[in-house]
């Protein structure tokens, strides 16, 4: 079986600075795969490249066996890759419902769209309760929920989440992680970038530790969670 996403020797640079220095990993359908690592390791750069927002200087990205290298970002969404970016990027003056509908901009099946709006409200009831309010009135955690709900509106085959727990209270973070687990249980394939290694590894099938542009360690979520070097470097243990 070929993987849903295959990344091989991917290299990405900002001018002369190589931010991603030849990484390889894959994501199978139905899996949650996480990239963890400290600030500046290259995690966000990797996701932005998979979305087509940055062009690689080397390597291969294959989605369902087809190369994404020459495909523009808007086409990549239509192939089934959705990206919920770091910092959320919701539209604060538009209503919550309008923000969700933006995620469905490539779709024409209005009955299916309405069903998926309802699915987002089932997943995150607060969004339904406040559907007619400006999105800017939501708290940080609620905006994160909206960004995830919006990404799901494109019915992605692969959902990429960039630091969904960033800046959230512990309770809100737990809620977001529980939702990711629920999405996984529903069969959604997820590539999760997180600085909160503990939470990410606890729900991931596979994980990769990134350090300054390279993958330095890979394993199942459980193996990495119990790995001594990971515990020391990323889980704050002595
Ligand atoms: P963070 O969690 O802080 O976002 P990250 O692992 O996602 O970290 P990246 O944001 O991908 O890391 O950054 C990787 C490297 O690329 C860093 O050294 C960063 O300074 C550099 N970098 C990121 N964006 C740019 C840019 N627009 N121009 C130049 N260098 C950049």
UniProtKB/TrEMBL annotation:
> By its UniProt entry, which Pfam families does this protein fall under?
ABC_tran
Q: What is this protein called?
A: Amino acid ABC transporter ATPase
Q: Does the keyword S-adenosyl-L-methionine apply?
A: no
Q: Name one GO molecular function term.
A: branched-chain amino acid transmembrane transporter activity
* Family from the record: Belongs to the ABC transporter superfamily.
Q: Which GO terms describe its biological process?
A: L-amino acid transport
Residue intervals of the ABC transporter domain: 5-237
UniProt cross-references to InterPro entries, sorted A to Z = AAA+_ATPase, ABC_branched_ATPase_LivF/BraG, ABC_transporter-like_ATP-bd, ABC_transporter-like_CS, BCAA_Transport_ATP-bd_LivF, P-loop_NTPase
Q: By its UniProt entry, which PROSITE patterns does this protein fall under?
A: ABC_TRANSPORTER_1 (PS00211), ABC_TRANSPORTER_2 (PS50893)
The record's keywords, sorted A to Z, are: Amino-acid transport, ATP-binding, Nucleotide-binding, Transport
């Amino acid at each position: 079986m070929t993987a849903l996403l295959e990344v091989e020797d991917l290299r990405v640079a900002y001018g002369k600075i190589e931010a991603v220095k030849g990484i390889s990993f894959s994501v199978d359908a139905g899996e949650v795969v996480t990239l963890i690592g400290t600030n500046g390791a290259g995690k966000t750069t990797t996701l932005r490249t998979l979305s087509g927002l940055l062009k690689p200087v080397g390597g291969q990205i294959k989605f369902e066996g087809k190369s994404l290298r020459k495909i523009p970002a808007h086409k990549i969404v239509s192939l089934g890759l959705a990206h919920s970016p770091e910092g959320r990027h919701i539209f604060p003056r538009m209503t919550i419902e309008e923000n969700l509908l933006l995620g469905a901009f490539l779709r024409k099946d209005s009955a299916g769209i309405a069903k998926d709006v309802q699915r987002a409200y089932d997943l995150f009831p607060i969004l339904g309760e406040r559907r007619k309010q400006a999105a800017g009135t939501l708290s940080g955690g609620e905006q994160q929920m909206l960004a995830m709900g919006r990404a799901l509106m494109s019915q992605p085959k692969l959902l990429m989440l960039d630091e969904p727990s960033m800046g959230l209270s512990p309770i809100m973070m737990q809620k977001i992680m529980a939702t990711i687990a629920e999405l996984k249980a529903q069969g959604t394939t997820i590539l999760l970038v997180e600085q909160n290694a503990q939470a990410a590894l606890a729900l991931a099938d596979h994980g990769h530790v990134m350090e300054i542009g390279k993958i330095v360690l890979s394993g199942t979520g459980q193996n990495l969670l119990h790995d001594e070097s990971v515990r020391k470097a990323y889980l704050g243990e002595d």
